[in-house]
Design goal:
- The chain is an alpha/beta fold.
- The chain has eight helices and 14 strands.
- The strands form five sheets. It has a six-stranded mixed sheet, with helices on both faces. A two-stranded antiparallel ribbon has the order 2-3.
- The longest helix has 28 residues.
- Bound molecules: zinc ion.
């Protein structure tokens, strides 16, 4: 009887403690309603099919490149995915909703399509995980250059997110901080309608970085550094001025297509609030007859 009472008291104390801790954790985080889209860069096979680098662009780039590789840690796409899945778990534990562009290696996802996934999710942050080719002992973060009609709506928030995440990541993992770099030629930036950053987390031909990238413990540390920065960024967002909310006109419905029935041409719609065109639907890249996996494209105007 005493044992049973003691047991019940212990359970009650444990549950109370757990609830308090859980309450503290979530109430303190302030990021429960936030959405993050994680794009582990590259995939098992690159796709040299070209796509426009932005809406209406004549300049094109390969749909998705194969990435680099470390002699110890292996292909970049596997390191990016493993860190991405670890980051996914960390953010979910903070109450953040997380959308992954991919969870396996063998996918077929152009960079514009990855941006489309983030757009469809109305992500508060679209983070694209990469490791760089080269031997430098540093890390840096790319963000969208200011391009009228493409990135002017996400430039400021992207830059702010890049600053916060780069600083947090670099200091946490102990890789020297090489700062931020704007880029105007990245398809995954120019097609994005949500704040977007691309950390080049390490250099795969740097032997020290390569050794670390092969270590599950260090990959976890990489994810923790990124999560630290992401949470800090999300906490800067005001609920009334969420960039994900601001791109959508309240009266306009989303354009949603059924999986497996993608359109075959670029489709443009003019914004209902009189600004530049914002709605688009990606085409099948030239030469491709079908998508290899179901997907939904949704845009709002
Ligand atoms: Zn890469």
């Amino acid at each position: 009887m005493i044992t049973g009472k003691f047991f019940r008291i212990t359970i009650c104390m444990f549950l109370s403690f757990f609830c308090i801790m859980k309450g503290d954790l979530y109430s303190a985080s302030g990021v429960e309603d936030r959405i993050v889209c994680i794009d582990p860069g590259h995939q098992l096979h690159g796709d040299n099919t070209h796509e426009p680098i932005g809406p209406g662009a004549t300049k094109t780039k390969p749909c998705v490149s194969p990435g680099t590789r470390g002699s110890i840690s292996g292909p970049e796409h596997t390191v990016n995915l493993d860190v991405g899945l670890r980051l996914h778990g960390l953010l979910i534990s903070e109450g953040v909703t997380v959308v992954m562009t991919r969870v396996t290696a063998d996918v077929q996802l152009c960079n514009s399509e990855r941006a489309a996934i983030a757009n469809s999710a109305k992500a508060d942050l679209f983070i694209r995980l990469h490791c760089n080719a080269g031997r430098s002992n540093s890390c840096f973060t790319l963000y969208p250059a200011l391009t009228e009609g493409w990135t002017d709506d996400i430039y400021e928030e992207s830059l702010k997110a890049a600053q916060i995440v780069q600083e947090a990541y670099s200091s946490y993992v102990g890789i020297p901080d090489a700062g931020l770099r704007p880029r105007s030629d990245i398809s995954g930036f120019n097609w994005a309608d949500v704040p977007t950053i691309l950390p080049e987390m390490l250099y795969m031909q740097n032997t020290d970085h390569d050794t670390k990238a092969a270590s599950p413990e260090f990959r976890q540390k990489m994810a923790e550094g990124l999560a630290d920065g992401i949470i800090k960024y999300l906490k800067t967002l005001d609920s009334d001025t969420s960039p994900a909310m601001s791109i959508k006109s309240p009266s306009s419905p989303d354009v949603t297509l059924s999986p497996g029935t993608p359109p075959r041409s670029w489709e443009w719609k003019i914004s209902t609030n009189g600004s530049r065109p914002k709605a688009w639907i990606p085409s099948l890249p030239a030469g491709r007859k079908t998508w290899k996996q179901p997907r939904i494209f949704a845009r709002s105007i």
